[in-house]
Amino acid sequence: MSIEQPPKPVTYWDYVGTDALLDLQKPLTDAHDEMQFIVVHQAFELWFKLAIYELRGAIAALDSSDVATGSRLLKRVSCILRTALLGFDPLITMTQQGYAEFRNALRPASGFQSAQFRMIEILIGIPRVTGSDGNERFYWESAVQAGVTFTHFMEKYHQQLLAMYEETRDRSLRHVMLRVTEAATGHVGADAYRHLFNHRDQFHELTSLAETARDLQQAMLDFRLHHHKVTVFTVGEHAAGTSDAHTGNHPSCAGYLLGVIRDRSTLFPELEEALGGAQAGDRG
Ligand code: HEM
């Protein structure tokens, strides 16, 4: 008769996977500052992973009209991104000289190739845009010149991102949020939000959802503003990036990033339109 062994007690290191996690930092050079560069990027990717998970949860809840859960999970996404943003601070302590010691070894890789950042944008609801040749594409496809930074990224992730886009075409955060607001107010598009904001006392949960979505939009903008700041501090305003993707159109990498800030800050256009004229436009 075999005697059953007591189950092995759970340990912190197995549960968290510390051995595997702490074995993932593999600098390409001996430069002192490269370790923090890798750790900061890895920490961002972990936060992105959680943001995607919670964003999917929020969308699923809203899609089944559970506004309270959707709103709570969306608040969490916003909180996660704001926490992740603090990760830029240690990078700003790096001097241009400190970065220059290992920067060339990273070419032609770039944060441009972060697929999870693109997934967050897709889940939030960025549209594909029609180019001058009549073809639809993601804005990051229009922004770049041909080059290996871009082609490597497209080879590895384009199909996956496209599939995600198709899957969420009418189920992105922007779409499901608008749908529940339209259903509750009986108005369509920006008018639904106008009605909401003019009758806040009747729609507490939905108003709070819309405000949380605006906070998420600000958190994404804050990511870009902090990111631009770290670029100016660590490579300067006029330097080219490590990638070969943008230098043709945009002489400096900081200039490219400013262009994205200028063009991509509105994530919920109906909501912003409503807030531009909430009183005047309300017909409800
Ligand atoms: C010293 C620090 C950093 C520098 C100098 C830097 C520089 C740049 C530059 C120049 C670009 C423009 C695209 C290109 O030229 O390829 C870019 C894009 C990007 N980087 Fe960074 N980056 C830094 C840190 C980070 C960190 C910590 C993250 C966190 C994940 C990150 C994520 C991204 C993302 C997502 C993009 C694409 C942005 C967009 O298209 O809006 N970067 N980065």
Main-sheet strand order equals: 1-2
Unreliable spans are 278-284
Secondary-structure-based class equals mainly alpha
Helix content: 55-70%
Rounded to an integer in angstroms, the radius of gyration calculated over CA atoms is 22 Å
What fraction of the residues are assigned to beta strands by DSSP? under 5%
Number of helices: 14
- Please tally the β strands and state the result: 2
Run of helices and strands: HHHHHHHEEHHHHHHH
**Overall spatial form:** globular
Task: Give the number of domains.
Answer: 1
> What is the level-2 CATH architecture name?
Up-down Bundle
Largest sheet: 2 strands, antiparallel
Which fold name fills CATH's third level, the topology?
Answer: Methane Monooxygenase Hydroxylase, Chain G, domain 1
CATH class: Mainly Alpha
Task: Kindly describe this structure.
This protein is mainly α and 284 residues long. It has a single domain (29-276), classed as Methane Monooxygenase Hydroxylase, Chain G, domain 1. Helices cover 65% and strands 1% of the residues. The chain contains 14 helices and 2 strands, in the order H-H-H-H-H-H-H-E-E-H-H-H-H-H-H-H. It has helices spanning 12-16, 18-22, 34-63, 67-85, 88-92, 96-106, 115-124, 139-143, 148-168, 173-185, 190-198, 204-235, 253-263, 269-276; strands at 129-130, 136-137. It has a two-stranded antiparallel sheet with strand order 1-2. Strand 1 and strand 2 (136-137) form a beta hairpin. It is globular and about 60 Å long. 28% of the residues are buried. Residues 278-284 have low confidence and may be disordered. Bound molecules: protoporphyrin IX containing FE.
